[in-house]
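step 4 of 6: structure.
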Amino acid sequence: MPELPEVESFKRYIEKTSLHKKIERVEINSPQQLQNIEVGYLKEKIEKQTFQYAERSGKYLFLHLDNNFWLVLHFGMTGRPKYFSDNKELAYYDRINFHFEDRSKLTFEDPRKFGKIYLTSNMEDFIKEKRLGPDALHIGLEEFKLLFSKKRGSSKSALMNQHVIAGIGNIYSDEILYHAGVHPKTPFYMLSENKISEIFNIMKNVLNVALDMQLQNKGLPNSYIIPHRKKKGKCPNSDTELKTVKISGRTSYYCPDCQKEVF
DNA sequence: CGTGGCTCCTGGCGGC
DNA sequence: TGCCGCCAGGAGCCAC
């Protein structure tokens, strides 16, 4: 579920609630979500530490510890952080729980357990190992053009490919291509340089608007395709019924009138 | 390079 | 109501 705007809002949420508190205990209810670490080793590195600050790259969230290790969170499809300042009981889906000294806690809620937790001593190395492309909010136009202009696969799968650009998933790639008027199967190499620049601007705008809405706890504007992303959903511009097509195994929604295949 | 299929999980929904 | 299959905003791996 969470793509760049959601993960960025998770980052702000954790910054607001969970920094500089001594972690008394880590409770791991779902050890298979730990990636390169044993439970005991994680406890050893995390307990009695504090989260000093947070960074984000694509859909990964990095929490810096006093001992200079980083706890790395990836939220998969259903993961999200939740903070409790009171003594509210943890719930069934709270897979990994950080109990702070002041009795508050931060939990990694994740019904489907696709979320992943890593520990690394070096954030840059981690990003290199994952072969993550530049972050979609930080990339500049020239680099964007360089990366995309020769891409021969579908525009949709290029935008979703974390090795090319990091942070965009199934939902926001649909939104970006919708505003660009580009069919999700159209490859980038067939688009003009102007069109690619336009997609760049749209990408930034969509991600920023989505982040704003996340932070305000509001849905996206009705003129976006995401709110209409369901069976029988209609294009907010042309009122045409949206169509779906499978690309890289994921369902894409698009408007057959506003997004023509350029072949 | 690029795509499609399968896998990890669990719950919600539509159809019969 | 009960059950079943399909679908879901991620991503790694493998075969072609």
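step 5 of 6: annotate
 - The helical segments of chain A are 4-17, 39-46, 123-129, 141-148, 155-160, 170-180, 193-215.
 - The first strand of chain A starts at residue 23 and ends at 28.
step 6 of 6: archive
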